[in-house]
Amino acid sequence: MNELLPLLTYCALMSGTPGPNNMMLVASGAHHGYRRTLPAILGINAGGAVQTFVTCLGLGVLFTRWPLLHAALKLAGTVYMLVLAWKLAGAGAAQDRPPERLRFAEAALFQAVNPKSWLKAVTLASVFMPPSLGLVQGALVVSGVGALIGFPCVSMWALFGSWIGRFLKSSGRRRVFNAIMAASLAVLALMLLR
């Protein structure tokens, strides 16, 4: 329990605080509702679990040895978030259509360029691997706990978006909401470059 409580707390904090995944889920929840956002939620958790598992098995060492690789992934993630922000900002401008919803595979693959997901995976691998278990078993425990804790945390963001969506009946309100979410995502992306 002494090892599990800090792991649970860290996973809850990383999954529950604002980041690229949660900003996208708020926007998706607002436009498409929780049920239609569920594939993205599951994709985020599955992608994060796989990312954590392979990082625990040794991928995180690559970032330590080759910082340029980490910098390249960080830049790719920032560019991708800026593209998503651009798309979100333009959503609704033409024929008042909502932005496309993020699919399972897209959400899972996004974790590969999401700097916050990498930070979480590397920290889990370097700080929270249980020394009493073997490498594979420890990686399974850490990645499994991350996914189990992550699901309700990111779900809250999508549910929050669904609740906000009730107030976005007019196209003007939707455009303002899209602009705010796009700006938030862009600011977050630029902050990650520091």
TrEMBL record:
Query: Which residues, if any, are the signal sequence?
Result: none
Q: Where in the cell is it found?
A: Cell membrane
Q: How does it sit in the membrane?
A: Multi-pass membrane protein
Question: Which parts form a coiled-coil structure per UniProt?
Answer: none
The UniProt keyword set, sorted, is: Cell membrane, Membrane, Transmembrane, Transmembrane helix
Task: Give me the segments passing through the membrane.
Answer: 40-63, 75-94, 139-164, 176-193
Q: What is this protein called?
A: LysE family translocator
Its taxonomic placement starts with:
Bacteria, Pseudomonadati, Pseudomonadota, Betaproteobacteria, Burkholderiales
